[in-house]
Amino acid sequence: MDERLEKAREIVKKHxxxxxxxxxxxxxxxxxxxxxxxxxxxxxxxxxxxxxxxxGERTRAAIISxxxxxxxxxxxxxxxxxxxxxxxxxxxxxxxxxxxTMAGAATYALGTVFIQHFESGGNFLNFDxxxxxxxxxxxxxxxxNNIDNKPHCFTRDNISNYVGHCKLTNxx
Length: 172
What we know:
- The chain is mainly α and 172 residues long.
- Helices cover 72% and strands 0% of the residues.
- It starts with a helix and ends in a 7-residue tail after the last helix.
């Protein structure tokens, strides 16, 4: 396997774990801020790895655009789960499952989209979220369903098993 691609996958895996952890953060809405920061950091690292000048504004716009492509149901679910953390019993019961799963899946999907774009010679100037929206959604669904069915993957020892199940592809 290409060493450059393998290193890019490692960057995504590391940040997927960080976003999953950020999803556990108990303060409503602040968790979303931390998850977004992790995603920005991941894309900055990927850009550096591919020797592409990083553009924070374009990256934030891409994250928002691709995030909204998940549909109002998923976006609303993520926001509601974040807010639900403020409810004493319900927040304690849902916090460790839903938000970390969504954060990990979204970060994984975002990473695969940018790896594919950078591998094909793209940069931030020619990144078009509309062209990768279906690929992002497919990767999110695949990742979310995989995590959902394999909760054991959230341990630090098993996170690499999870990433092994969700291979990066060049599918459009």
